[in-house]
Write a structure and sequence with these properties.
single chain; five-stranded mixed β-sheet; D-Maltodextrin-Binding Protein, domain 2; 19% strand
Length: 256
């Protein structure tokens, strides 16, 4: 009897182990929600050394995308591409939404529908510690670097004549140009600027709130996709109300 009981106990244990393994390896059959991004804008989206929140990608926006997917019955997927290709990819149906630290502007609102704002930012200047640039006006005649398609490029355009710049495809390339003394200043979003400066010796941030207006990030969907937009807005509002986005911003500003 004892031998039979032991055999039955072992059999049950084996069944539980198989069930647990099957649960861990079960395929994710949820429909996919594709988010387009440009994963070179830490701490919002980047490729970490190890595994990220979604596949190989990590960051504030990536964590937000995952929660939006989970709350609405989707498996969030990240499609990485150049920043200036994102809206076209959305219009062509290559992605369902764009989350890429994208500033809500009247020009972009003519092409896409934006979610409610989920993050406030501004443009700042990164310079070397010995730089004499103390305000935006001091950039006149200097070698300016911006990121192609980012708000910093638009902000410098608005300064008028005498502010010529070179546009780079991503932040790391622009920062390398500054570190190698091939440009004098990089104009970029504030939280990203603080991240770069914290990780790089010999640089400092210059703020000029009189020259650069505040801006707000939003998630873009194809014009008329109200159903998806409503789901995204509901999830974003929940994350704003319960402090999730503030916690993510604080976490990723310190870690990468």
């Amino acid at each position: 009897m004892k031998k039979l009981a032991r055999i039955l106990l072992l059999a049950v244990a084996a069944m539980l182990l198989v069930s647990a393994f099957a649960a861990c390896t079960a395929p994710d059959n949820r429909p996919t929600l594709k988010f387009g991004t440009n994963a070179e804008f830490a701490p919002f989206e980047f490729v970490p050394g190890g595994k990220g929140v979604i596949g190989e990608f990590d960051g504030i926006d990536i964590a937000i995308a995952k929660q939006i997917g989970d709350e609405n019955g989707y498996k969030a997927e990240i499609v990485n591409m150049g920043f200036d290709s994102l809206i076209l990819a959305l219009e062509n149906g290559q992605v369902d939404a764009v989350i890429a630290g994208m500033t809500i502007t009247p020009e972009k609102e003519e092409e896409v529908d934006f979610s409610i704002p989920y993050f406030n930012a501004t443009q700042v200047m990164i310079v070397r510690e010995d730089s004499t640039i103390a305000k935006a006006e001091d950039m006149k005649g200097q070698r300016i670097a911006v990121i192609q398609g980012y708000t910093g490029q638009t902000a410098v355009d608005k300064l008028g004549e005498g502010y010529s710049y070179e546009a780079f495809k991503n932040g790391p390339d622009a920062m390398l140009e500054l570190k190698n003394n091939k440009c004098d200043v990089v104009v970029i979003d504030s939280i990203t600027a603080y991240k770069y400066v914290a990780e790089t010796d010999g640089l400092k941030i210059v703020v000029d709130n009189n020259a650069f207006e505040g801006e707000q990030y939003g998630i873009a969907v194809k014009e008329g996709n109200t159903e998806l937009l409503n789901k995204i807005n509901a999830s974003l509002q929940k994350m704003l109300d319960d402090g999730t986005i503030d916690r993510l911003a604080a976490q990723y500003a310190e870690e990468e």
